[in-house]
Amino acid sequence: MAPVMRALVNPAYDPAGLRAPATDARAFHEALPGYAPTPVRELRDVAQQLGLGAVVLKDESDRLGLPAFKVLGASWAVERALADGAGAAVDTLVTASAGNHGRAVAHVAVARGLRARIFLPARALPVRRAAIEADGAEVVIVDGGYEEAVARAAEAGRAPGALELADVGASGPAHWVVDGYATLFAEAAEQARFDVVLVPVGVGSLAAAAARFGAAAGVPVIGVEPVSAACLTASLQAGEPTVIATPGTTMAGLDCAEVSPAAWPDLRAGITGTLVVTDEEAAAAMTQLAAAGLSIGESGAAPLAALRVLARDPDAEPLRAAVDLGEWSRVLLVATEGRTGG
Ligand SMILES: Cc1ncc(COP(=O)(O)O)c(C=O)c1O
């Protein structure tokens, strides 16, 4: 078996032509009940250990009352879809999810007086299923992986009264989800100074929003993937979206076999490079964050694990050079979720 490549410099990186980040979602989010910008925390010990100027972490463990960033995309996509004329006929929101997006859609459905049907892959943790059911949604467990759940949700989304809220694909909602995530980066830019961003990648919608932000701000963006679900790394290497096998990872939100078509153009031109991490490295990063008083889940801790690889691994030298990493660097880690307890 070929040795695992830890770091990739994107050969097609050319951010000049990227669209500007969306701006209209932010006012919508700010008007939601309970809205507050999530905090940015400084990790002084990490910066010192790795010889960096500063490491700051955007903590998404409590976003609008939910333990992940995903409600930013789901809420904006529902708003846009209902405003686009689907509104009157819709009584049920339908989506597939590895967990966090489904919970966000269930939450948005309650807020709008709608029902929700969420399709989860069989390997989704029972604790994630229970959290979605507690929000009053119907959960359908699909025999297969995330991609099978996506296919089932697409079918169910064609029923009368249903509105499919996919965060993957080429549909309107898949684009609006990316637009909704712009709020996270706009907040971060007001809260801290940073000159490189590390962001976890599942289907790449969040990373696409990061890439648009980075292109406008002149900040390089690195995508972080599980070693066993590195679909963006494979796609950037191949120069086209590439489906990979996903044998499983504890980083459940990142366990995706392919990038979202809605995200791909921004990823291809706007991601400086990628890093891959193991489940053990993500667990160690979680433990380190817990010791610092931060309750962050596996997918959310992946960027800290990746920063170690970036700073120390010999394979990462070309990517270190591409982002000019050194004692002057100020790094933003996007910690996308709190601990889910599973
Ligand atoms: C906690 C967490 N982090 C990161 C991601 C990755 O986001 P995307 O699928 O947009 O790449 C997800 C997606 O579900 C997630 O739940």
Distinctive features:
about 350 residues; alpha/beta; seven-stranded mixed sheet; globular; binds pyridoxal-5'-phosphate
Description:
- It contains 13 helices and eleven strands.
- With 342 residues, the protein is of the alpha/beta class.
- The strands form two sheets. Strands 1-10-9-8-11-3-2 form a seven-stranded mixed beta sheet, with helices on both faces.
- Strand 8 (196-200), helix 8 and strand 9 (221-226) form a beta-alpha-beta unit.
- Helix 8 (205-217) crosses helix 10 (264-270).
- The chain is globular.
- The model has no long low-confidence stretch (mean pLDDT 95).
- It binds pyridoxal-5'-phosphate (PLP).
- Pyridoxal-5'-phosphate (PLP) is lined by residues 68, 70, 98, 100-101, 200-207, 253-254, 299-300, 336-337.
Give a concise summary.
With 342 residues, the chain is α/β, with parallel strands linked by helices. It has helices at 24-30, 44-50, 71-86, 100-112, 126-134, 146-156, 172-191, 205-217, 231-238, 264-270, 279-291, 298-312, 317-322; strands spanning 7-9, 40-42, 54-59, 92-96, 115-121, 138-142, 162-164, 196-200, 221-226, 273-277, 330-335.
- Element order, helices and strands? EHEHEHEHEHEHEHEHEHHEHHHE
| Major sheet characteristics | 7 strands, mixed
Structural class designation: alpha/beta
Rg over CA atoms: 19 Å
The strand line-up of the biggest sheet is 1-10-9-8-11-3-2
Instruction: Catalogue the unreliable spans.
Output: none
- What is the percentage of strand-forming residues? 15-25%
Counted beta strands = 11
Question: How far is the N terminus from the C terminus?
Answer: 31 Å
